[in-house]
Amino acid sequence: MLELRNASLGYPGRRVLTDVSLALRPGRVLALLGPNGCGKSTLLRTLAGLLPPAGGAVLLDGEPLGNRSPREAARAIAYLPQSRGVPRITARRMVLHGRFPYLSYPRRYRREDYEAVDRALGLADALDLADRPLPELSGGQRQKVYLALALAQETAYLLMDEPTTYLDVRHQLEVLSLARRLADGGRAAALALHDLCLALTAADDVAVLGEGRLLALGSPEEIYRSGVLARVMGVRLDRAPGPGGWRYFCELPEEE
Is the pTM of this model over 0.90? Predict the structure, then answer.
């Protein structure tokens, strides 16, 4: 289990979130929701060990994450940021970077590394992009390559910050489906999302951030019924029954 326990999060001189406790459990998908600037990215970066908590603790299997070496942490937790650089290398070469935690220096890729990269590219629907230079790819194509980079680490925990950015609706749904498949296979996924409807449909657990704190944590049903998500996002949130479950939709609230 990857856990924040009474954690305060932020940067030197700027606190973003206070007293946050939540857990990312194997077999489950966690959606992080909230308005721009509420701290979703900060929370993911702290869970990944890239930012130290200003207070409280980040725990991996009950032990402080800071006790792990960077290599050990990278073998357990993969992090997909909102954006990355665009070096002049092929997509496959970029995804090979995800194998760094398993290599000694100087790095010499093994057969299993290339096999892991091809698996990751396939899962991200990017295998056809493997030999193309990154600068020649569209934003959506690059996003699939970056997802494959995170998948190539083959970690128990996958943290994704706006993974559906630049993707068309089909590939947005495929990313959520992939998160579900990974969880069903025993891994854990946390996704920061702006699409409330996708999140409520796909997640097992939903964390709502705002006002400098964790406002609510629960199942999609509990979060919907609480009304907290509609309030903090400033929208009207409704739903209707559909094939396989509820279908959610948002609209602007009526003017008084």
Answer: yes
